[in-house]
Amino acid sequence: MSLSVDILQRFSMKIEWLFTGYTINPLKIFIIIVIVVVVGVLMYLYEPYWMVRKVRGPPIVPLLGHIHLMAKYGPDVFSILANKYGPIFRFHLGRQPMIIVADPELFKEVGIKKFKDIPNRSIPSPISASPLHQKGLFFTRGTRWSTMRNTVVSLYQPSHLASLVPTMQSFIESATQNLESSSSSSKGSDIVFSDLSLRMATDVIGQAAFGVNFGLSKPQSVDVDVDHDHNQKNMLYNDEVSDFIKQHIYSTTQLKMDLSGSLSIILGLLAPILQEPVRQILKRIPGTMDWKVDRTNRKLSTRLDEIVLNRIILQEKMQLGADDHDHDSKDLLSLILKTRPDSGSRNVVFTQDYISATVYEHLLAGSATTAFTLSSVVYLVSRHPNVENKLLAEIDGFCPHDDDQIPTSHDLQHKFPYLDQVIKEAMRFYFVSPLIARETANQVEIGGYLLPKGTWVWLAPGVVAKDATHFPEPDKFNPERFDPDCEEERHRHPYALIPFGIGPRACIGQKFSLQEIKLSLIHLYRKFVFRHSPNMECPLELEFGIVVNFKHGVKLRVINRI
Ligand code: HEM
């Protein structure tokens, strides 16, 4: 006690010394500047913490916040913290605090009841380093977002989705041909199912969003499907397809949420004020990761802008009657262009950069997530024979495996209840998007805490999905837990499983991807069953980026049923 009084006295004497007398002493000025800088830096670093300090959370390490806990506990970090601090707690990503919410009733409060006060997503550091990813639906805000969403949502109306079944089916069949040749030619050798499903999902969304056939599911060939006239106007050319996809994959996989991203992304976590200036410098220095990412993103943007521009020219020609071909395309790009007011109008929400970003975002949001879900189902079913038998019985009951009847959109929604359960359980078991970002637009009360405007509130549905309160024996793959007649299902909170998010900002592609996933699984299980490859690690290793992925892919053996 007397020691601290002594220290305080000495400190106040020093302060007095600094401010006594009117002579300009260089040493005094230097010390004052140092103090001001140190106080400024401390205020900059601690200000966000100060605003939400009342929310419980683990002690923070200066600069790192809780990033070291991510390294220590890996993907389970939020479950461990929720056990210790309850369903709402503070987690610091570097300087930035996030209020993590891990409770279904609070999901409802944040996502639905208080949507007016929490309508947007916060922009994490990897995205703020990537302008290409910022202008899609995901990160736009306010009225621009609602106008964009209202336009895009029409692509996902039931009648439109139903009309997409044949397109989806044709890509699924191409991918299945790949499997047939691999199962017969290589006599039980492995296939990397996750790659195959990614190629297929990319093709499906490429066609639905851009009206472009990337041709990735074609057996032994990545040739683009060429309809010559159309091709001239809106297609990627053969030799550019793989380049485009490579750039797309590079650009996406660099969006890391930990300290393994580019230097500017890391700075964005630790001291966001420095992120943009440093990015501007580093992107000009060849060889740095920022330089590579910038180059890739610029190439990607140029390619996307070309596609969009060609389509605008085509549309204008059609309006002038100079092109009389039937180009009644139903893809997202055509749809957005059709709803655009004249270029002279002042209310153009979908300027060319926003169109490119939104269409590209569909490729981004619709490929890896759908492919991950498909791979999870096949992987999990292949080591649960009871589930496999029940599933095969349901699919064969719809029509025998030598019949080619394609289910309609209505069939998919109503005639495969067990398949629905299997998909739900796989999505619970391997959660592709375990965190859902939101940001408060006004001061708002959540879970008993008053949160100021600008607070990052992140839902953690991945934590609830593995919580035994809602899902007894959470580490058991058990589709029966979703049987509408079972106790567990009847007593579960309706928002305990939200893999597609919640409220007005929930995933726009939910029905689209479920239609694709069901159609794929029905087609696959009519012809094949799958077994784990001995060359695959056990348990499966996951990789955590903007979405979760399989670290080494999903390798399976294919067995022909016919
Ligand atoms: C299994 C597949 C998918 C999963 C698990 C998934 C998951 C999600 C999640 C968790 C969100 C955030 C929701 C929220 O904040 O409440 C989201 C948003 C979004 N998803 Fe998906 N998604 C999938 C497929 C797709 C597909 C196929 C598309 C496009 C066709 C798509 C497009 C989008 C878009 C545009 C948003 C932003 C919506 C907005 O802010 O208005 N997703 N998705």
The overall pLDDT average reads 83
Instruction: Enumerate the spans where pLDDT stays under 50 for 5 or more consecutive residues.
Output: 221-239
In terms of quaternary structure, what is this?
Answer: single chain
CATH topology of the largest domain: Cytochrome p450
The coarse overall form would be globular
- By CATH, the architecture of the largest domain is named Orthogonal Bundle
User: Compute the gyration radius: what is it?
Assistant: 27 Å
Question: Could you give the order of strands across the largest sheet?
Answer: 1-2-7-4
The distinct ligands, each listed once, are: protoporphyrin IX containing FE
End-to-end CA span: 84 Å
Reported for the largest beta sheet, the result is: 4 strands, mixed
Q: How many β-strand runs?
A: 11
Please bin the fraction of helical residues: 40-55%
Report the portion of residues in β strands: 5-15%
What is the count of helical runs? 23
Summing up helix and strand content along with how strands pair, one would put the structural category as alpha+beta
Broad CATH class of the largest domain: Mainly Alpha
Tally the structural domains: 2
Please name the fourth-level CATH homologous superfamily of the largest domain: Cytochrome P450
Q: What can you see in these coordinates?
A:
The chain crosses the membrane at residues 27-46. This protein has two domains: 2-45, no CATH class; 54-560, Orthogonal Bundle (Cytochrome p450). 54% of the residues lie in helices and 8% in strands. It is built from 23 helices and eleven strands. It has helices at residues 2-19, 26-51, 67-73, 77-85, 104-113, 125-128, 142-153, 158-163, 165-185, 193-210, 228-234, 238-253, 263-270, 272-282, 289-320, 332-339, 352-382, 385-398, 409-414, 417-429, 461-465, 487-491, 510-527; strands at residues 88-93, 96-101, 190-192, 436-439, 444-446, 449-451, 456-459, 528-532, 542-544, 548-550, 555-560. Protoporphyrin IX containing FE is lined by residues 111, 137-138, 149, 205, 361-362, 365-366, 369-370, 373, 432-433, 436, 499-502, 505-509, 512-513.
